[in-house]
Amino acid sequence: MIRVLIIEDDPMVAKFNGIYLESIPGFTIAGFAKNVVEGRKFMESSPVDLILLDVYMKGPTGLDLLMELRKEGDSVDVILITAANDKDSVQQALRYGAVDYLIKPFTFERFQNALLQFKKQFYLMNQHDEISQDEIDNLLHASDRINSDLFELPKGLTKTTFTRIAKKIIAWQGITFSTAELADDIGVSSVSTRKYLHYLVAHKLIDTDVVYQETGRPLTNYRLLPGKVHILQSLLCE
Length: 238
Fold this sequence. Notes:
By secondary structure, this protein is of the alpha/beta class. It folds into two domains: 127 residues, Rossmann fold (3-Layer(aba) Sandwich), CATH 3.40.50.2300; 76 residues, Orthogonal Bundle (Arc Repressor Mutant, subunit A). The protein contains eleven helices and eight strands. The strands form two sheets. It has a five-stranded parallel beta sheet with strand order 2-1-3-4-5, sandwiched between helices. A three-stranded antiparallel beta sheet has the order 6-8-7. The radius of gyration is 22 Å and the shape is elongated. The N and C termini lie far apart (46 Å). The relative contact order is 0.09.
């Protein structure tokens, strides 16, 4: 199990970060600290693999702690979870080796992605004395690989129609729509449109919501998932 120390001065935020963390397999909470001083004391007596670290706290900041650890030669991994979104804070965190930087408020999906990516890196680094180029590329360029794989459309789906549908979904971000509404708008049959929608649902780019009409018949509505616009845009074929 990957042992995680949460350093956060807001008890409610710390609690929810802990709940999020323990819902992801492979992680366990090593402990909580409400400031840098408490965090350092905890690390002196208990092993820690990863720190979820706030920036703004009373006394030394999270960035102060990160810099001190690196100057001391401590390579413990750190993910910043903070409201600090200024360029200097981000650059400083990355310069001192933060493995990720989450800006509050964030989605559980973004939190989960950060932890799963770290878990992949953690086990790769701890299970092998030598690492191949392919393993490094798979670790560092995972998002590029996912985008490439997504665009390998299954037989019967074309890039041209996919692009028409994707553009309309992007234009409708934040709006729910049915298969029929999308099909009517872009001039493609409902049967064909449904195939593309099922493909996008399977790849977790859009979500579904079933509602029941006055007749009692179910109607499936769709919506673009938050944070997926850039992925869908990258798959457009002009």
